[in-house]
Amino acid sequence: MKTIFFIDGENVVYQLRDSLASRKLIRYRDELSRVNIRKLFENVLQDPAVRTASIRYYASKIHIIDKTPELKERTERYATDAEAWRKVLESQHVDYVEAGHLLVRDGKPCVECGHREPVLVEKGVDVTIATDMIRSSGDNVRLVLLSSDGDLMPAVLESKRRGAELVYIGFRGVSNAALARTADKRHTITSKHAAAVLAPAPKKEKPVAEPKKMHAEHHHKKQQTAPSVFTGSRLASMLPAMQPPVEQKPEPKSAPKPVRKVAKKPKNTEDKS
Questions:
Q1: Alpha carbon of 70 to those of 74, 82, 105, 106, 180: distances in Å?
Q2: How far apart are CA 222 and CA 172, in angstroms?
Q3: Residue 221: what are its φ and ψ, rounded to 5°?
Q4: DSSP state at residue 218
Q5: What is the reported pLDDT for 252?
Q6: d(C-alpha 145, C-alpha 149), whole Å
Q7: C-alpha span between 190 and 116 (Å, rounded)
Q8: Which of 10, 35, 144, 242 could form an SS bridge with 5, CB 3.0 to 4.6 Å?
Q9: For 61-72, how does the pLDDT look when each residue is reduced to its tens digit (9 = 90+)?
């Protein structure tokens, strides 16, 4: 049986990112490059035929919108991310199909000031998916749909009427109940499924410290000075040397020895007679 996957691109990307972020495995969208999409579907369906199945990823065409500096910066960043993601998918043999356009719409008004922040909206992607599903349907064909867009219901019904087997895959908590009920089979992608196909983050190389440049006039080695920060053992070994010297008290002066006075002998006086 021929198997073809139809992926509503941005819808699936946001749900996949949220699923991995809930387990604190990634933080940013560009980290999805570590996800093996084909392996993910193989694990969910438990079918080795997915290894050779046709997988089509549908995304809108991106044009730089320069109405405001903010919109220009956002659409440029959006285009850069989309191009990087395209290369990741193509390396996994996933067909990247550009469909529809990216439009600017006014968002919901701010409760406090009433300002409407412009938002980017895809338009026309679901129409292309629906058309391709109907064209691909027939006997001995299995169509696998990943989307939460209820507008694809007519295409699902027509594909089944033409003899195709319809399989629906959704993320836990955000699946479309109507599409799931209409499909012949249904599967759910959990955060555990997503984590199992996430490659480890590459280790960041430590920057190599550049040698310090010596002045041209100094060709001798500088004398190394003692470090300004010491470890506990280093400091402990230095404590005795750092203790201030014991102040020596001067010896008390001995009292002067008393001088013994020798009595003078009286002079012999001769009697004068």
A1: 6, 18, 14, 14, 39
A2: 65
A3: -75, 135
A4: -
A5: 57
A6: 10
A7: 35
A8: 144
A9: 877 777 778 878
